[in-house]
Batch of 4 targets.
Target 1
Amino acid sequence: MFTEQCNLNNCMLIHSGEKPYECEICKKSFREKGNLIKHLLIHAGVKPYECEVCKKLFRQKYRVNKHMLTHAGEKLYACEVCKKPFSLKDYLIRHMLIHTEQKPYVCEVCKKSFRQKCNLNNHMLIHRGEKPYVCDICKKSFSQKSSFNKHMLIHAGEKLYACEVCKKSFCVKELLNRHMLIHTGEKPYVCEVCKRSFSQKFNLNNHLLIHTGEKPYECELCKKSFRRKCHLNKHMLAHAGKKLYACEICKISFCV
């Protein structure tokens, strides 16, 4: 009789829309007390459910059950478009956004849209100026973990990505992709003003400064400004008195 009464009460809450159990920390409300208790584990940082295989911890039991499927190797959910299989239905749903080109998560600041909420959350760190990922070696900080991981490869000295044409190797795949444009001759970045094209985006950005007249790099000593940082660095040699460039014929040296 007690169980039936509880089920009736829960049913009535669904119809009424009431959520009487409120989290005192973030004010999120729940229909059932059990769901509030599970939610409080997030704030407490408690993850009581452990994967027996890899020891990864989870806050909720259903999450560890889903996770176990990845170890079992079962891939029960297949994409109807490209036939790629997935171990979890959630992964398949996320994957389908690629084919539909839907990006339902929109940044309220710059209106950039994302397929996954976690990508939007990472993007928001840029607007907030947060850089929670700090390199222990050089103390450089990053707003996104993926950027931090790429940076760490530089310190490790690993160059895992090799060009098949000239065998030059790179520590980050994006650098290899940029490099490949040299061999293919592609110049996908086009200036809308003069239609000049570039193989790399940063070269286009530098070029656009010519049209806008911007010179963002200023010498702190004489206040002369430059479009490119490399030009400022060369200019600074003049103030430092360094003369690194020597004429091979008469041996007179120059700072630039």
Target 2
Amino acid sequence: MRLNILEKTWVLNPVRRWAAEYFEVPKLLSLGGSLPGARVLDVGCGGGIWTPLIKRYFQAAHVDSLDLDSTMLRSASSRAEASIVGDACNLPFADERYDAVFSLQTLHHIEDWESSLCEMKRVLRPGGKIYGLETLANLLRHPFWGSWMTHPEDNRFSEESFVLGLRGSGLQLEGVKRLGKWFLFFVATRVADKN
């Protein structure tokens, strides 16, 4: 699902980058640690504000950016090694290509978010991590705040249903931090498949 004009304005706003750098990065680092030399995929990258943050604070060596909206990717293309138009439910990458996947405020835009988690797991090497921040259903259904956002109405998640979705996708939850009642930071790991 593409962002509406208000959401695009927020995603491309310098205040959003400030919040990411000084508030969100420390929370995710505390949950999952840094990724020295890692190859990373940023799913739903928007304007690409996270690419330099992933390199600087998480110490990744390579970041590819993916978004459904080609206009958003224009902003991201100067920051990433590769900027790809693509669907988070059908990632155009080989199995086990990445050491980590970042999904920041992306999954709540996707009706079939569980399929997206399965795709993220597929492109992760065993032991690889997903770093994420998500908006929970109670904000999306809020009479005031929810009216400003365009999101699928079906299959929205609470913290509990999201954690179950992570586990159902074959991911192991490493850490979770709730921000108030509306947002959830998480890190999950792809465990090795049993043969």
Target 3
Amino acid sequence: MLLALLWEPTPTPSPSPTPTPAQPVVEVKIVTETVTIPFERIVREDPSMAEGTRVTSVKGKTGKKTTVFEIALTDGKQTGKRLIFEAVTSAPVAEQVVIGTGRSTGCDPNYAGACVPIAFDVDCLGGRGNGPAYVQGPVVVIGWDIYGLDGDDDGIGCE
């Protein structure tokens, strides 16, 4: 019996658990992006406008473009990107600018043959009028006789 007490079975070691690798976390997100589309500026010259004048005939407006992407993330890091949808949601409007190139002569465009100054009142030089501006005729009325230089309505003033 003595032997039985001295001999004890050796316990078998239990295997240590092997760590299981963590599964990657995969996510899919839908992302919408909107970007601004700049407008174009169109400039044209107009000789009927005084030189140096500038008029914006149409105000420019930026447009918008919308894109929708599917983004794949693995453990929080982007691993893929796919375009799903893209459209111009608001078209840009081109700005239109007109620049005057005409030389100002200081002469009224209603008359030809002599320079009729642009003034509050113009009279024929040597006539009965009191000015403040005068023209030496004859002048041809090609528009409206705004200064009344053609007294006999024959189309020629200061004769």
Target 4
Amino acid sequence: MVVGMNIEMKNGMFKYGTGKTIFKNLNFNVNNGEILSILGPNGTGKTTLLKCLLGIHQISGGSVYINGLVQDKEKKNCHIGYVPQIHQSVFQYTVLEMVLMGRTRFIRRFSSPSHDDWNCARESLEKVGMAGFADRIFSDLSGGEKQMVLIARALASQADCIIFDEPTSALDYRNQYHVLDLMISLKREENLAIIMTTHQPEHAMYLSDKALLMDRDGNSCFGESDKVLSENNLNATYGMNIGIFSIPHNNAHLKAIIPLVSNPLHRSLSGNNSGNEVAS
């Protein structure tokens, strides 16, 4: 279990060479035991931001701090796990072998995985409810099952923080919430810091403690998810009418985020299936 973890970006800015600025003046933070959702239209730099946090790209301005230290100085003392969108393997790896890859940073060059490495891989599969799939071929699994295995691989790396890139994008409706519920469980039981990108504001509302909205003009809004994910902010970010409604359910009130659009081609004529207009 993670004892302490904090990732913070201050005045972050990124651009490719002398080209267009992808994002600017970006400020946010996430601690262990918290989930941060990053949202915005295509082209706002969400994936680029993840690559900066993973150390693949270097930010062009501002700073990234990990546990109060500049990112480069803290790399050896912490580890950020990564769960990509559905991964397609061309090799016939078993599920257990896929998870074992998460132990790579603990295995010395030209050495074989230790007994502890194999045990950690099995324990990680158990945590995501996939222990019975250890000997299955990864490429034969369904999309939801593959996503669970990739999460187990990140857990096997003993990450202090796990970054998810659109974790539900290729999943059916039920499996989307299965993955989201697992992320909530990992936050609570493993005390992890979790960062995810998503195109679904309702998913961010469902599980996030914090949210970061990014628009195409390079502007951003960060804070507690229930404050950031407001009708005004969502409408401005996505350029469409979006409503947030409170729905009573089991002595509680749930929030639903709904796009307020109507398509005349999809309207049904109430009380008439013949295609004729209903008389008023």
